[in-house]
Amino acid sequence: MKNIYKFLGLVLLSGSFLMTSCESTELDLAENPNFLRPDQSSADLFLNSVQVDFATFTELMSWNAGDMVRISYLNGRNYQNIANFAPALLNLEWQLAYQADANQSLDSGLEVNGILADIRAMAPEAVEGGLFHHTAMGQVIEAYTIVTLVDLFGDVPYSEAIQGEGEPPILNPAVDSGASIYDAALALLDAAIVNFGLDPEVEPANDFFYNGNWGNWIKAANTLKMKIYLQRRLVDSNAISSFNDIVTSGDYITTSSEDFQFQWGTNPVQPDARHPRYADNYTPSGGADYLPNWLMNYMNESDDPRLRYYFYRQVSATPGAEAPPNEETLACSLEPFPAHYAGFTFCFLPNGFWGRDHGQNAGIPPDGFTRTVYGVYPSGGKFDDSSFTGLSVGSGGGGAGITPILLASWVDFMQAEVAMLSNDFVTAGNFVRSGLDKSIAKVTSFGPLDSSADQSFAPTAGAITNFLNVVEADFTAADDDGKWNLLAEQYFVTLFGNGIDGYNFYRRTGFPTTLQPNLEPEPGAFIRSLNYPADFVNNNSSVSPKQDQTTQVFWDTNPPFPAFPISN
User: Which pTM does this prediction carry?
Assistant: First the structure.
């Protein structure tokens, strides 16, 4: 789906695009009757659109971020010239966040109105009608969206980006500083918490996240504030104190029943409601995405209980491992081991785990029915019961997976980081174990989604306890850097399904230093923020393209590469 979305982004944006206008400037095009306009839509329809676009936006940004830190697969051996991060291929992310052209449509049925545009369009009815919970949901979603834009792009338009009803559009909006946008996000979250506590005239028709549990929405808002404070701790001397104040209150996500996540369905057409990663891989032509060798190898070697839930193997043997090298399906199985890969896996893994190395940018061989694909968690695919029966449309969980946004297990790793900062290694280790315990319980609960799988392959309670004991012992025995590395590695595994916080952690701390290097021995400077999308710079005279992707976001005050200890 990642590649499909990128292609659709090019189709969508082939016409004129002004992200600040509430109407199309392409007067020669027929108006799209499915596009939501303030004069023809209700607050409920706007909020529905906001929620679905938000899930899609999070998926795309997660892929972009995860590519950098081996949570997903990076296709590109030169960091400053990676195809998926070309400005033209970042247009859809921008459009989802801001505003789509009212005359643009997709034959696929994917509707893109723009999160911020729909929130602004919803505001008049929500304010006039006392729809406090509509407003509050929009405020939390807006806060996460603008913070994520800053985290991946740096300074972006906000105060001049989308105008409210009756306000003239600003055709060339200037960028706001990332720091000011973070402040705006905190203000939105404070306002949301107040609004969630009020009694509205009418409740939202659909809440795709918490089904009307407003107490959990408040916990999500506070947890997002914790993330913001931790994220800017290098530039905010009060950040950790503010973080700990929320911890003391106890009003944040602490159990998996409170997790902030979007639930996908199983309907395959009009609209396709399945998890995007499922829809892209469970097809008649086989899998479309590659999974990262580093992550699969790390989990396989450590007997991670989540392994069979994250990944589904279509075959039992990989060329170069149990099977003979194969030039057609896995050409690198005939290539020499790169000198700079000493200590790391290269090209192939045992037991049928068929993925790609970080930065591998070879062509696409006929391996759609052999490569490893997304499993039952979080994508709603198949549980790996070593049956190697291949894929079919509707198999496994049918795509009824989730997009994780803020999980209780992640919060434990956030608290582990805070403990590490004060050298409280015992507390940090306890939080690492607690986070893993919560993650494993959540992930393994997805097994029954695949009703056809042999659940006898699920990890036993003893195997789970043994895994947790080994991680705890390794953490206790490690030196300071080793503790940071293990915390980071296990955090990245736990973040599978959303790489945004992994990319942030990597730039914030420089750990782990144990990641598989780029396949290119000298890949250039590591990406500290993405290029601005092409439509933004081409249609906005107030900004210029970035010279490269080494520009650091406001909270990233660490030394530039290569002084900063980031592994390539």
Answer: 0.92
